[in-house]
Amino acid sequence: MRLRCKAHIGLELLRFSSHACTMEGKSCLIQSKGNGVQGKPIHGNGMHHVVKTGCITPAELKARKPRWHIRASDMSRNTLNPIRAIVDGMKLTPNPDKPMIALSIGDPTVFGNLPTDDKVLQAMKDAIDSHQYNGYAPSVGYLHSRESVAKFYSCPDAPLEGKDVILTSGCSQAIDLAISVLCNPGQNILVPCPGFSLYKTLAVSLGIEVKLYNLQPEKSWEIDLQHLESLIDEKTICLVVNNPSNPCGSVYSQKHLQSILAVASRHCIPILADEIYADMVFPGCGFHSIASLSTDVPILSCGGLAKRWLVPGWRLGWILIHDRAQAFGPEIREGLVKLSQRILGPCTIVQGALDSILNNTPQDFYSNAIRHIESNSQICYTALSTIPGLTPVKPSGAMYLMVGIEMKHFPGFQSDVDFTERLVTEQSVFCLPATAFDYPGFFRIVLTVPQHMMVEACSRIRDFCQGHYTPCSPERNDLDQ
User: Fold this and answer.
1) pLDDT tens track for 346-362
2) How many other C-beta atoms can be found within 10 angstroms of the C-beta atom of residue 181?
């Protein structure tokens, strides 16, 4: 009976407290305290003695309501394009008395002097007029388009069929799919230094470690194979080889490619071959697809229309799967198909024009484009070689030339970023600092500009260097004394 009375009294207290707080326009926080006797709860009829421990005002209640708290994903926060990060942070104010000459962007269409061929344009017009390519295509691309790519790049030492080709939205997506299908977070890939910044951007965003292997400017940017091999461990899952090279303009010999394959074979590491500049090599220097030299190393070769056909905006790329020893097996192929299904592949109109683009573009078109780039490379290399404090490295292909800055002779600048920033300010010539490629102390020049602009740019670079060159830095003088 006593228990029931205490429980009844507790209930009345609860009701009274609630009513009192309501009358005061406040809400109350009620906390169970057992039966108030030595902290033991009452178990008789399941009711508990409760006491009011405090009241919450409407303002306090409002403060406790859930609030918006939206965070960007880890992947997005881990994504960084070094080129954009560096360029966006530079203070680029051109000299108003001199027209800007941009030698920084790897887009051959910027100045309009290198248009694609008329037959390439006609192939696109025909694809549009056919009304056959306005719908969705398979995520990996139309089979007949894949077969056209396979036939174009197939050779006796590296045969291809349509099933070995995945069409992508540009070569960048091809690289993205290749890294994604091979690697898991916590594993690592080997990437050239200096090298195209996208490899690092994609890998780091996926939680994949990037290990940079050295290229040797004194050996025309060949890979330091000893350094490369020293980086390999049990978590190394992929070797990225870029040939011809961005940003170096180098083209590897057959012998050097075979040495690279030997390292990959010893350690059973597949190769991601970035060959977007395939066949964009200067006369007298041959291009060898690394897959054509491999007997056992599986290779995902990435390419596209962007550079050789001078249509980077058309966003048509591909992955060529070379796996004669069946090291990839069905799993990698299936993985690539699944990853391609995340989006619906490249533009269907370009796919419809692809066979004609590959087979009907005249050889003169390729030859004329290469001739222009080579001529600019000769102008640039010859001119910059005579400028004290600069050391250009002669290219053999692609669209680029790398120039070393002997920083000790330019004590007024802290870095290649500072050097190129001031070059814009004083001479309105914009070259990309090689810090963007993890290679400070150099800058990259794009060779696709009109020839008269190339000559003018080199003249301005000479004037700039002459104005800032010091025979020896103060630090060096102190050491000599």
Assistant:
1) 999 999 999 999 999 99
2) 23
DSSP 81: -
Tokens of 83: 């080129």
403 bridge partner residues: 392, 443
CA 276 to chain centre: 14
75 within 8 A of 206, measured Cβ to Cβ: yes
Token duo for residue 248: 């170096």
Distance CA 29, CA 54 (A): 6
Size of the chain in residues: 481
As a whole number of angstroms, the distance between CA 171 and CA 363 comes to: 23
Q: How far apart are CA 192 and CA 438, in angstroms?
A: 10
Q: In the block, which residue shows the tokens 């150099």? A: 442
Q: Report the chain's C-alpha Rg in angstroms.
A: 32
Sign of CA pseudo-dihedral 386, 390, 395, 398? negative
- Using CA atoms, how far residue 275 sits from 29, 140, 269, 432, in Å, is 69, 19, 18, 22
pLDDT number for residue 396: 98
User: How confident is the model at residue 475, as a pLDDT?
Assistant: 52
Task: Render 319-383 in DSSP notation, one character per residue.
Answer: EEEE-TT-SSHHHHHHHHHHHHTTS--S-HHHHHHHHHHHHHS-HHHHHHHHHHHHHHHHHHHHH
C-alpha distances (whole Å) from 16 to each of 11, 20, 25, 66, 396 are 9, 6, 14, 30, 91
* Regions of the chain short of the pLDDT cut 70: 1-54, 61-62, 473-481
Q: What is the pLDDT of residue 27?
A: 42
